[in-house]
């Protein structure tokens, strides 16, 4: 199988969590000879090549970060430039997000089924997974703990051409956290979030307080 992979994040490749996930995913996917070409929607100069690859190939994988509960606007802008196909092309999706509970990705997942139909293609499933906020903020070794499990999902994709297997469905993890865990997370968030975000913002060069209001 040869897959066309489209990273749907508006973030440039170097800063994209989706790209780090795809790095591990494609390592597993190519273990038994599957090949791929990868594109970034964030780079508008690639759009013509992505369109060409979409029209000329029958296995498309779009990897998407959840932005405000659905898919990023830049990806939508790109998708609107595609004409529907009608040649048995299969589209599978990786839908990944910051928050961990599976339930908050289900609306986006439903939309992806509708989108596939609009593109005249066959739906090959969505790998749904949250808990990816940290990839960008932590050191490489720690991020590896979050991204490494995607290698096995890459093997599954190569084997089945999609994400409909029970293994892929189980990969999502908890749909909703238990009540005690939600209470505990609420407390941890209230106590540590402010100082944690302050530290992160300073780490990426922010010199003003996070509640700074320059236009007030
Ligand atoms: C503008 C914006 C909106 C986001 N909205 C959500 C959201 O609604 N739910 C969620 O769980 N994560 C949300 N996230 C977190 C991203 O889905 C998550 O960090 C993802 O791994 C980013 O991947 P990327 O770096 O490839 O863009 C949002 C991030 C940004 C920057």
Compose a concise summary of this entry.
The protein is built from 8 helices and 5 strands; from the N terminus they run βαβαβαβαβαααα. The protein has 216 residues and is α/β, with parallel strands linked by helices.
Explain this structure.
It is a single chain. This protein is an alpha/beta fold. It has helices at 17-29, 47-56, 73-79, 106-118, 140-147, 150-160, 166-170, 179-203; strands at 2-7, 35-40, 59-65, 90-96, 122-129. The chain has 2 domains: 2-170, Flavodoxin domain (Rossmann fold, 3-Layer(aba) Sandwich); 177-216, no CATH class. It has a 5-stranded parallel sheet, with helices on both faces. Strand 1 (2-7), helix 1 and strand 2 (35-40) form a beta-alpha-beta unit. Helix 1 packs across helix 6 (150-160). The longest helix is centred in the C-terminal third of the chain and has 25 residues, at 179-203. The site of flavin mononucleotide has 19 residues, from helix 1.
Main sheet attributes: strand count, strand direction, barrel closure: 5 strands, parallel
How much of the polypeptide forms β-strand, as a percent range?
A: 15-25%
- Summed up, the helix count is 8
Number of domains: 2
Key traits:
single chain; 216 residues; alpha/beta; Rossmann fold; 5-stranded parallel sheet; 8 helices; 5 strands; binds flavin mononucleotide
């Amino acid at each position: 199988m040869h897959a066309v992979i489209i990273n749907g994040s508006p973030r440039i490749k170097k800063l994209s969590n989706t790209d780090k996930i795809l790095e591990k995913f494609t390592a597993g996917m190519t273990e038994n000879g599957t090949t791929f070409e990868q594109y970034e929607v964030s780079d508008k100069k690639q759009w013509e090549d992505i369109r060409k690859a979409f029209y000329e190939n029958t296995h498309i994988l779009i990897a998407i970060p959840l932005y405000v509960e659905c898919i990023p606007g830049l990806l939508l802008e790109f998708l609107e430039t595609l004409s529907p196909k009608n040649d048995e092309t299969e589209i599978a999706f990786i839908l990944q997000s910051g928050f961990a509970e599976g339930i908050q990705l289900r609306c986006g997942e439903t939309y992806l089924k509708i989108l596939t139909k609009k593109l005249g293609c066959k739906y090959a499933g969505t790998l749904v997974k949250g808990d990816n906020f940290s990839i960008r903020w932590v050191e490489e070794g720690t991020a590896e703990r979050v991204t490494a499990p995607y290698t096995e999902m890459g093997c599954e994709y190569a084997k089945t051409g999609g994400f409909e297997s029970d293994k892929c469905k189980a990969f999502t993890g908890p749909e909703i956290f238990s009540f005690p865990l939600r209470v505990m997370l609420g407390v941890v968030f209230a106590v540590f979030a402010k100082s944690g975000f302050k530290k992160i913002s300073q780490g990426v060069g922010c010199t003003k307080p996070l509640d700074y209001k320059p236009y007030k």
